[in-house]
Design brief:
Chain lengths: 105, 528, 375
């Protein structure tokens, strides 16, 4: 782990032609929203997710997690970024099914 | 809480092999899988697999799944299907969903063999209905028995793109092109060649510019990319398609390992995080293993060995197998695994251009750029010998781990040798009887039987044929060359199907004598 | 960049970020040091989002009432980001006469503190929220309670403070506060030394490790809190919900998903080891509670569960103080799992304490040295 100064200059947000493109389909988050979030100080996937909910919909980031990560990394000018946290349930599960906990038999 | 010696998560090739191996040492094993059928991705896969007999080579994927399940169950492994594991909690507690409820289990050891999921790629219009992962298209075709569309573009020339591309043609779709941003075909040359000879063009160094359509895909524009992956102006090409399949790699499904707190690391910056594992697949958490694609993307054959390695390691850890037994077994498995890690597609060669085969022959650049061998380079390879009478032409030109052809020939005409990635050699001094076993056995469909003189100034060519309806003897059609270009009229002289051929038919057609080294596919009807 | 500022805040949770915002707004040079790589990675991103007055400890009631009246209503506008604050009331539900008794006690206590809260019958509860199970026999009702999105609130304060020039450094683990000339002045991280006139420690459960370096310790323990979130569905109701038995609490968010929390009773025994994982029995228990009161939600899918540490103080209310023993130091921790709702007020006060102003509310109940051994 290394210190990241959030005043680090990553340059101005420059609008791009494909900013309107949806990246997270479940939550309908665009590439431009993700890019702007980075310029607003969200310097990693966790904060971008918490701000925009991308990757937190029904598919749980199955499709967009890598895409979001690469957009954030590119905007920050870094090659490598931590993945988002993995949380149970690994597959969405109805409340009634979760509630029906048979325990350990 | 219900406790097992070993809980395996994922009933794919790695998981079932791990379970079988562990159970053979006396462990009480449970396997959980979210799907209705075992085998992981194997059940979608209708092609014959590569490798050697021990890795179930020349068996079709779905049959491998069945065999693996049978082996596991015969050893008393409890396999829970339709049972997604929703969490891997502290102290190796597994919570699985069963129908309308959840249950908790503990494993003294846990092997995570959850495989991988498809990567997606964004471009203008990528969210339109009709853009899908190649795996999704494969599921539609082979599990749900519906075609994903009528006219399809495949993005990605790795094995997934090539194999699914071929299946799309088999399912009756028109595959308009296979494209890849890389300058070279990524998958096995033999997979590319069997697609190319049906007439599908390959566009390397090309990517999708945009998917067109308002409510769904109605077309696609592709363009050539330069060295920095930017579209070269003016290079755009349009195709009318209703489906765009994406096959741009897989990412390990590591979520359960991350949730459990296993250490993750990137092999190189930006390469993606993988669980940090020992040689036996054990993670930073004692007794928790990662096996198969979840620990790094490879082929099903290596996943099976990796599963067995983790299975025997778990047996050793829990004292079901003594140190000597474990070591002997691990040595054998690791030898087998390293054999698979040789050749053109060895992990160390990833992303590299390899100029020569292990035999010192040029690796065909034509194949890598176009998806098929040039006519004038075929004869360079040791499976191709021009002799009179019926004999095989083996157009297997890359060092890949596969050798069923060697065992298929009852006359020992074909040799691969102990090194499984060596190119097959046709021994022209042996007496080929034209039985066609080798043609059907070749998972890459790269063996043809030719007879340079069947009279009337004609030669015969026998090709592996996996399309329906089967042509009939006497059907008049057109022979296509390796690029899929019609070259001459060709009449079907024989159609052979046998149980031993396992759904690969042998189609023999006659062509003028000077075309038998070019004719590699057959289509009904006259050339347009 | 110079490591000297007017105020250093240790901890970039909602308390630290909001304090940074209020100080930066005054034109002060502020540096926020955060141990985690992520802003708001502790309890601030791991709570139920309640902005609740009913059921509050009497000592905290003035803080939350002040916040609801003065700060929460305009917070989205002030910070330039929708923090999804809804002031649609709080229903605390009961199904048995015993439940009603519990609710009446809570209601009486809050009402005596000046809060508009009262007991209502099933019919009235049903008219407020038509999705209730008909097993509910009554409820307490506080119409001015509400909820907000804790992650957005935390990040909105961060963003606004950053825009005002506050310097945030993540991945900066504080190992020591050092005195200069008898006053706390230097903050040492694993790789830098920072200096300021005033140091605010707002690091949740991690505060003690830092305070110990200047000889202070707040009697608090980490306590697990677990939540779950559902898929989104069309808007149904925006009241904050709870029960007499505390089976669960939660609300529907602006996004359409429901956020619920609950307890298993085993939280105090969960070991403390960094970022907490959710436990395997918590979400099922919470789901059972929810279905009993809201059967209509039974087929909604859970997409995520999470857990976090509360900094549970011995008397379950925070320390908000400039301890007499150490000059130059401000403490804001021990919020005991209900800090989010009072965070705008607490941060306003912490900022005032940091610049030596008299706080807008009396904070004598939150003094550091209130913990005395019984005699």
């Amino acid at each position: 782990m290394s210190a990241v100064d959030r005043t680090r200059d990553i340059g101005e947000y420059v609008p791009a032609q494909d900013d309107d493109m949806i990246v997270c389909r479940c939550e309908e988050i665009t590439k431009g929203e993700i890019r702007r979030a980075v310029h607003d100080g969200m310097y990693n996937v966790h904060e971008v997710r918490r701000l925009l909910r991308c990757g937190m919909g029904l598919c749980q980031g199955q499709t967009c997690a890598r895409l979001v990560k690469s957009i954030v990394a590119r905007e920050l000018g870094v090659r490598s970024l931590e993945d988002a946290t993995a949380r149970a349930p690994m597959r969405p599960i109805e409340m009634s099914v979760f509630a029906n906990d048979g325990g350990g038999e | 809480m219900k406790r097992y010696d070993l809980i395996v998560i994922g009933a794919g090739p790695a998981g079932l092999s791990a379970a079988t191996e562990a159970a053979s040492h006396g462990l009480r094993v449970a396997v959980f899988d979210e799907n209705a059928r075992p085998g992981g991705q194997l059940f979608k896969q209708i092609h014959k697999f590569f490798g050697s007999k021990e890795h179930k080579a020349k068996i079709r994927g779905y049959d491998i799944g069945r065999e693996l399940l049978k082996e596991a169950e015969s050893l008393g492994v409890e396999v829970f299907l339709n049972a997604p594991v929703i969490g891997l909690y502290a102290e190796k507690e597994v919570v699985a969903r069963h129908a309308d409820g959840v249950r908790h289990y503990k494993g003294d050891t846990v092997i995570v063999a959850t495989g991988a999921s498809e990567n997606m790629l964004t471009f203008e219009g990528w969210t339109l209905p009709g853009v899908m992962g190649a795996g999704a298209a494969q599921t539609m075709m082979n599990i749900n028995r519906v075609t994903p569309g009528e006219r399809v573009l495949m993005l990605g020339s790795g094995n997934v793109g090539l194999v699914v591309g071929y299946q799309l043609i088999q399912a009756g779709c028109e595959l308009v092109a296979i494209i890849d941003a890389a300058p070279r075909v990524g998958g096995y040359g033999v997979h590319a060649a069997k697609v190319a000879r049906t007439g599908v063009p390959f566009y390397l160094s090309h990517t999708v510019v945009r998917a067109e359509g308002t409510d769904r895909v109605t077309g696609v524009t592709i363009g050539e990319v330069d060295a920095s992956w930017q579209i070269i102006a003016g290079s755009e090409k349009h195709f009318d398609v209703d489906t765009i399949c994406i096959a741009v790699g897989l990412s390990p499904s590591t979520q359960l390992l991350k949730m459990a707190g296993a250490d993750m690391a990137e092999p190189a910056a930006g390469a993606g995080f993988l669980p940090v594992c020992s040689a036996t697949g054990e993670t930073s958490i004692s007794g928790l293993y990662a096996s198969g694609d979840v620990s790094g993307i490879e082929e099903a054959s290596s996943a099976m060995i990796e599963g067995r390695i983790s299975g025997v390691a778990a047996a050793g850890k829990l004292g079901f197998a003594d140190a000597e037994t474990v070591e002997t077994r691990l040595n054998a498995l690791e030898t087998a695994l390293s054999a698979l890690h040789e050749g053109l597609f060895a992990p160390r060669n990833r992303g590299k251009s390899v100029p020569l085969t292990d035999e010192g022959i040029d690796n065909s650049q034509h194949l890598l750029k176009n998806g098929y061998l040039a006519d004038d380079e075929v004869a360079k390879y040791p499976g191709v010998k021009r002799v009179s009478g019926v004999h095989p032409i083996i157009e297997c030109t890359q060092n890949i781990p596969c050798n069923p052809c060697q065992d298929a020939c009852p006359k020992q005409c074909i040799k691969v040798g102990a090194n499984i990635v060596a190119l097959p050699v046709f021994d022209e001094t042996s007496a080929c009887i034209g039985c066609g076993q080798c043609v059907a056995a070749c998972s890459g469909q790269s063996i043809f039987l030719v007879n340079d003189d069947i009279g009337d100034n004609l030669a015969s060519v026998t090709i592996p044929y996996e399309f329906l309806p089967l042509p009939e003897k006497g059907d008049v059609g057109t022979a296509l060359d390796r690029s899929g270009t019609p070259i001459c009229a060709a009449t079907v002289t024989d159609v052979r199907a046998a149980k031993a051929f396992d759904h690969t038919s042998l189609l023999t057609f006659s062509v003028p004598r000077d075309e038998y080294m070019r004719a590699r596919f057959w289509k009904k009807g006259a050339a347009v | 960049m110079s490591n000297v500022s007017d105020v250093i805040i240790v901890g970039a949770g909602v308390i630290g970020n909001a304090t940074a915002y209020y100080l930066a707004k005054r034109g002060l040079r502020v540096t926020v040091l955060e141990k985690s790589e992520y802003i708001g990675n502790g309890g601030s991103s791991r709570n139920g989002g309640g902005v609740r007055q009913s059921g509050r400890h009497p000592a905290e009631l003035p803080l939350v009432m002040y916040g609801v009246k003065n700060l929460w209503v305009n917070l989205s506008d002030e910070l330039g980001m929708d923090v999804e604050y809804y002031q649609e009331g709080n229903l605390r539900l009961g199904k048995t006469p015993d439940h009603i008794k519990t609710l009446e006690n809570l209601t009486n206590s809050a009402a005596s503190g000046g809060l508009d809260v009262r007991m209502i019958d099933y019919k009235e509860a049903q008219s407020i929220c038509p999705y209730l199970s008909d097993e509910v026999i009554g409820a307490s009702w506080c119409p001015t309670d509400g909820h907000a999105n804790p992650m957005l609130t935390t990040l909105a304060y961060y963003r606004a403070a950053r825009r005002l020039g506050a310097r945030f450094v993540s991945g900066a683990e504080v190992v020591e506060i050092r005195k200069l000339g008898g006053r706390a002045r230097l903050v040492v991280t694993t790789d830098e030394v920072y200096e300021a006139d005033t140091i605010v420690v707002a690091a949740g459960v991690a505060s003690n490790k830092i305070l110990e370096t200047v000889g202070l310790r707040v009697p608090m323990n980490p306590a697990l809190l677990e939540c779950l979130v559902t898929e989104d569905c069309p808007p149904m109701f925006y009241q904050m919900l709870g029960t007499a038995m505390a089976d669960f609490y939660g609300h529907q968010s602006k996004h359409g998903s429901f956020v619920f929390g609950g307890t298993t009773g085993y939280e105090p025994y969960t070991t403390y080891g960094g970022t907490p994982p959710a436990t395997s029995g918590s979400a099922p228990g919470t789901c059972r509670g929810i279905i009993k009161y809201f059967p209509v939600l039974r087929d909604l899918k859970i997409v995520r569960t999470w857990a976090g540490w509360m900094d549970d103080c011995a008397d379950h209310i925070p320390v908000i103080d400039t301890p007499d023993e150490v000059a130059g130091l401000v403490i804001g921790c021990g919020f005991s799992g209900h800090g989010f709702g009072i965070s705008p007020t607490a941060a306003t006060i912490l900022a005032q304490l940091a610049v030596g102003e008299t706080p807008v509310l009396d904070v004598s109940r939150f003094k550091y040295d209130r913990f005395k051994v019984r005699t």
